[in-house]
Amino acid sequence: MFQLPFSKPSIVFEKRLTIVLLPLLIICIIIMKYFDAFLVNSVCKNGIVSFELAKELEISIAILDSWNGQSKIAASLSMGFDFLFLIVYSSFIALLIYKLNERLWNNKSFYAVGNLLIWAVFLAAFFDAIENLALIKLLLGDLQQHWSTIAFYFAVLKFAIIIICFIYILVNLGLFLFRRVTSE
After folding, report:
1. Burial status of residue 30 (CB atoms within 10 A of its CB: 0-12, 13-18, 19 or more)
2. Which of 59, 83, 68, 82 has the alpha carbon at shortest distance from 38?
3. How far, in Å, CA of 168 to CA of 96, rounded?
4. What is d(CA 95, CA 84) in angstroms, rounded to the nearest whole number?
5. CB atoms near residue 48 (< 10 Å)
């Protein structure tokens, strides 16, 4: 069976961690949205996500050229801040998966799926860091195709893992609530 990347937390620690991570996640999302507002334009319709998924150097250059000085500063701050954000979102998602896994699948074979996803979300955060480094290289003027390619593929992998984790969380949260309602 897969082992957790951390020791099983006590219920008290789990609650405290949730109380810390949830507001931190909300604050991080607000800050990232604030930075992103400077990046959206007719060339870069989806802000930083457009830059992450550019894939072709020509598209990356077009996005960079569409940004004014203030936008480039916002992009730089966004990518720097994302190193904190990736720690917060991966920890929060892992904690949610852990909580659901413990309540629904403890001592069942499906428990290993949740543990695998806990590891996977931290892998997604690592992919996010690699993607950020490639985007920073582009932003700093190292305009080479491999940076756009690296950013694209690591962003796709990151998003795929996060989407799978969200599906797992939503389905299991629904199952948890259904079991709770039907047992009352």
Report:
1. exposed
2. 68
3. 10
4. 17
5. 23
